[in-house]
Amino acid sequence: MLSGCANSGGSSGGGEESGGAKNQLPAQDSIEVPQDAAKAAGDGKGKCESGTSIAYVGALTGPNAQLGINIVNGVQTALNEHNDANPDCKIELKKFDTEGDPAKATGPSAQAVKEDKIIGVVGLPFSGESKATGKIFEDAGLVHITPAATNPELTQNGWKTFFRGLGNDTVQGPALAKLTEKVGSSKVCLVQDDSDYGMGLAKQVKSALGDKLACEDKVTTGQKDFGPTAQKVTDAKADAVIYSGYYAEGAPFDNQLSNQGFEGVFIGPDGVKDTEFVKQAGSAASNAYYTCACVPGDLIKDFSDAYEKVSNGTAPGTYSVEGYDTATVLMAGIDSGIKDRKKLEEWVKDYDKPGYGKTYKWDDKGELTDKTVYGYKTDGDKIVSVGKID
Amino acid sequence: MSGDWITFDLGRLVDSFWSTTLDGLTLGAIYALVALGYTLVYGVLNLINFAHSEVFIAGAFAVVFVLSGLGFGPSAPHMSLGLLILDIALAMIAAMLVSAGTALVVERVAYKPLRDKGAPRLAFLISAIGMSFVIQYLFFVWRGPSAEPNRTMYRPKPIFDVFGVIINSQQLTIIIAAVVMMVCVDQLVRRTKLGRGIRAVAQDPDTATLMGVNKERIIMATFMIGGALAGAAAVFYVMRVPAGVFYMGGFILGIKAFAAAVLGGIGNIRGALLGGLLIGLIGNYGATVLGDSQWTDVVIFVVLVVVLMVRPNGILGSNLGKVRA
């Protein structure tokens, strides 16, 4: 240890540095939860056959595993609450790991649909893997609610079993553009990756930005060196960058941007909003804002307390509330006496109740009618909500 | 897909010509250092050492470990310049040793036994690819699939501002240090006794042996010099891409460096320098003209093919043995 002081600047530099953004958006410390929000416990009178199962299909390991873990812990929280409150209905949770990779997701999905006891699924979290597997669920008539996939085209395939538990990118794209307005930016660079998610979202952002778009670039998944892209942003003298992709590339990109002398704000969608992003980008992340059609679960006390028991003390993360809420929708159906996949699909289709985060009611394509998007920002080594974007 | 997937706009390149050029040269300098390893080994053994990209990434891992041990984190440290230079020098020494060591092990394990048995060329090629995978997956098993945590050495500061062209301290460090190293290697091969030995073995190994050159020692030295240069490149790579170190991290860079060696004329030291810088520039120019970074590799390899059609031996085209003192 030659230089203990090497890192004394540390990641504590967040907060006070305002960068090039003209407005700092204040952090929120609570959100309103509807009085009649549906809880997983139900009325405690649920009856079901033993062995009745729901499943989580999605990432548990792999480079973007954290998002999947947030979700599955939310599902587990709901399941525990339900099973504690309903002595005559103990629902089981089966987990299938896709690593979030479209190429690997078909195997676990095929396995899940083969198990007759599984009548409803939470998943899959990512757009690419959802696209790759939607037909498997459709053919098996197994209803699945994605708690996180936001690519708009997913509901254009005619799949009757596919439901989306959050607003899609036609909602998030304009919200990203809106956020640049809120922080007072006038010249925005849009950088997209090569995933279904990133490309689909970028299209929406681009049309919402209009003539504020100062430059554009496209990068690839797995890319590490973003020097030329960062150069482009500083050449364009932009005061904000929207990165349409995931944190694995977003973090090194933001880091190189700030090394290049960029002082504006970095805005990422839900794929970037992850504490891993803050960890990997270091002090560079202090300029970051995020959008997410997800509800800040850490600001809902009941939920956060219950969740931490499942997660060994980790606060709820991105899509934890959506994991809880979508599992609750499925389990409420089972409690109502539903025993087969077909009936559960109809149950979800006709469902209309508020959850912790938003109202769960779907249109005939499987899109949620509630279009809530929240804004977030980096605060020290955490990500905190700055409130709804509307 | 809409029709705007390709746009051609020279105006973009004119607007940002200097910044694109500087960035391209910085990248190119790193490619060139790695390319030297391919070129030296090819010059002496007529063998493409495909495991060289892993020699490079081993050095990059060493850099990350040393920096972590010295307390570097994802944010740029606050420390005196002297201490920073000392720390980076330590990282560089470690990286050069590790890379040179890895190169030596590759030589002894994968190539020497084949050479002793007089195996055909193809066997060396397969052995090289095999070694590359072995090292890659050793790192995979050891360090897992995700990148090592970001270690930022320093935050580059703009140094010169010439007519609106900003050169930052990182670009300057990398370009100057890399060019100095390459000049040293060039001089080493041209002027020293070891260099004469390398050239002799490259020209005619049997005659060189008869003249009293210890061929095995020369081969080992060649691998180690190439390895040490890859280690130095690894330091500059981590300097530029602090979060880029993972088990597959050397692969694409290695292929581009190999392309650089071929473009300049494989076996030719000055060719490696020229090829590296050109590959860096071509990639950046191409990406700027065509609109986005996803074009970089397409442009690089199209240009490579076109150049090889005109000059099959690369731009400078000679080989190591023909270099005269």
Automatic annotation (TrEMBL), chain B:
Q: Which residues form a coiled coil?
A: none
Question: What family is reported?
Answer: Belongs to the binding-protein-dependent transport system permease family. LivHM subfamily.
The keyword Membrane belongs to this UniProt entry's keyword annotation: yes
Q: What Pfam families has UniProt attached to this entry?
A: BPD_transp_2
UniProt-recorded name of the protein: Branched-chain amino acid ABC transporter permease
Quote the subcellular location field of this record: Cell membrane
Q: Which GO terms describe its cellular component?
A: plasma membrane
GO biological process terms held by the UniProt record: D-alanine transmembrane transport; L-alanine transport; L-isoleucine import across plasma membrane
